[in-house]
Write a structure and sequence with these properties.
Strand order of the largest sheet: 1-4-5-8
Structural class: alpha+beta
Number of helices: 10
Helix content: 40-55%
Number of strands: 10
Oligomer: single chain
Order of helices and strands: HHHHHEEEEEEEEHEEHHHH
Distance between the termini: 30 Å
Length: 365
């Protein structure tokens, strides 16, 4: 039975991340970041770099730890519980991809992810690479990465004359326009418009089938890591709810004594345990190269739906004060909203799981 920290080595990894997040995360720190227009928590990033967490997926030959997605999921669960305000999953995924392409890794490189057939991104124009005046030019419109303000380089997928490409593009390249914004959880975001961005051969990380395979694996890393973070958010939200029910009194009794509320909390706990088992089993199977492609979709769909349900239940239990910036539970709800929408929401991934698992006609590859 695989759970979040059954093995001694994994328990040490998770405990180490919990200790680091104790000083770098939490609701008070998230409130402090709210007035920074979506900037990354520089102190948290510095500590993550110093501790080596950002290179967790990199092989030792590339200066990393050589660990797997199971270990990243442990770390992301702790990051979700602490509301860590840093692009841990995104930088880890970028390091992994760059190391797979034998390219120099960088802590300020972030991936641009396009979810094929996503009905919520119909405006996206898949970037195209064309030869113009003896220069390869990249054009399109895509959703930029979370924590976009941190990016100095971007991993951009594109379609070229000879097939699929992965390109490394400077964040300040000529022809790259940023439409910047801030997500509901005070994390910077952006829509990127590429108009004839010059790309030379040194910027092409991979092409053809290799690029397609790496990009699909990149998406699975982001989806499963975000699922683990949603699990962490859900766990902490449930803990805050139980604490509130034990201390809040109504009609002369603690709210925790009301059976109807007990049943709803038990239902939420069951969902948490099912999600925990799913996340870590899928992550372990991914590390062993035994996973079914549909299971990353199933994991993201289930944890997204459950995180929204559990945090909304928490808000209902807390009452109107839960919606205020001053109350911790509202911050967890906003982080759940943002992560649920990232890399495809629950509806999109449920449909993708149905297609790829053969539950409906027209299987996807």
């Amino acid at each position: 039975d695989v759970c979040s920290s059954d093995l001694p080595d994994q328990r040490l990894i998770q405990d180490s991340m919990v200790r680091l997040c104790a000083g770098l995360g939490g609701p008070a720190r998230m409130r402090a970041m709210a007035g920074t227009q979506g900037q990354v928590d520089a102190q948290a990033m510095s500590q993550l770099q110093e501790a080596g967490w950002l290179k967790l997926l990199c092989p030792e030959s590339a200066g990393g730890w050589g660990l797997g997605l199971f270990d990243l999921a442990l770390v992301m669960e702790a990051a979700g519980q602490s509301l860590l305000h840093a692009p841990l999953a995104e930088v880890c995924a970028s390091h992994w991809l760059l190391s797979q392409c034998q390219a120099p890794t960088s802590d300020d490189t972030l991936p641009c992810w396009i979810e094929p057939n996503d009905p919520y991104r119909r405006w996206a124009l898949w970037p195209q690479v064309r030869m113009e005046n003896s220069v390869w030019r990249l054009s399109g419109k895509i959703q930029g990465p979370r924590f976009a303000s941190h990016a100095r380089q971007l991993i951009v997928p594109a379609q070229g004359p000879e097939g699929f490409l992965l390109c490394l593009v400077s964040a300040d390249a000529a022809g790259l326009a940023w439409d910047r914004g801030v997500d509901v959880d005070d994390v910077s975001s952006a829509v990127l418009t590429l108009q004839g961005v010059a790309v030379d051969l040194t910027q092409i990380l991979a092409h053809g089938q290799q690029a397609q395979t790496l990009y699909k694996q990149l998406g699975q890393i982001l989806q499963i890591a975000t699922s683990a973070a949603l699990l962490g958010v859900s766990i902490k939200s449930h803990e805050l709810t139980l604490e509130h029910l034990r201390t809040r009194r109504q009609f002369g009794r603690a709210l925790a004594s009301f059976q109807a509320l007990q049943h709803r909390c038990v239902d939420a706990f069951v969902q948490l345990e099912l999600n925990r088992s799913l996340v870590f089993r899928v992550a372990q199977a991914w590390d062993r190269q035994q996973h079914h492609p549909a299971m990353a979709h199933a994991t993201k769909a289930r944890t997204s739906k459950s995180a929204l349900a559990i945090t909304r239940l928490a808000l209902q239990m807390h009452g109107a004060m839960g919606y205020t910036q001053a109350h911790d539970i509202g911050l967890y709800h906003r982080r759940a909203l943002a992560w649920t929408a990232s890399y495809g929401n629950d509806n999109h991934h449920a449909a993708a799981f149905a297609r790829q698992s053969g539950m409906v006609q027209g299987r996807a590859s």
